[in-house]
Amino acid sequence: MRAEQTVLPSAAATQGFAMRLVRTASHILRSWSNRRAMRQLNELTEWELVDIGLTREDIALAYDGPILDDPTRRLAQIARERAKEDNATRRHP
After folding, report:
1. Residue 3 in domain
2. In which domain, by residue range, is 33 found?
3. Are 31 and 68 in contact (CB under 8 A)?
């Protein structure tokens, strides 16, 4: 085995590291952007929140997860569950 092969990283290893770095940076930017969107939702009035099917408590619940979790995903889950409950109560009065 030649010394160059043991010391220098292969092109595939370098490319793999670069892809992981890009994915990590993308995840961080997306999380930051989603948290900024959540702050903007929190600035809406109660009337505007009700109009889009949310409450102030929904936003607080979405933020309660781990810091690395995406609060917008949790908020979407809360909204879907509420929509299902609303549909069920409309069908079965």
Report:
1. no
2. 11-91
3. yes
